[in-house]
Design goal:
The chain has about 100 residues and is mainly beta. The protein has one helix at about 40-45; strands at about 5-20, 25-30, 30-40, 50-55, 60-65, 70-75, 80-90, 95-100. It has one domain (about 5-100).
Length: about 100
Amino acid sequence: MKKEGKEKLVLFDRLRLHTQEEGLTIWKGEKGTYAFRNIKPQDSLKPNYPIRRVFLNRKYLTGLFRGKEGYTGDILEEKGKRKLLFKPLSKQDLHIYERVFS
């Protein structure tokens, strides 16, 4: 099913790095606390397999995939998928955008 209209990016959240450990980074955003957990190295090399799991307020949000413009993920909902774009601005700042069609 092809989406109608033009795609645009809408800000989903702004994140700031809080803590960093081996295999885990914690970010604070307007919607809460995000945890980015690394996936086993042998699994993350598989095609179409996420490199990290992203949790928001201790609930699974999405898998994180390498993309052309940054990193991508999607949220599965009853009405369909919400596509996200994770764009690093610096080592301490990250913006998450939602791809929407108008």
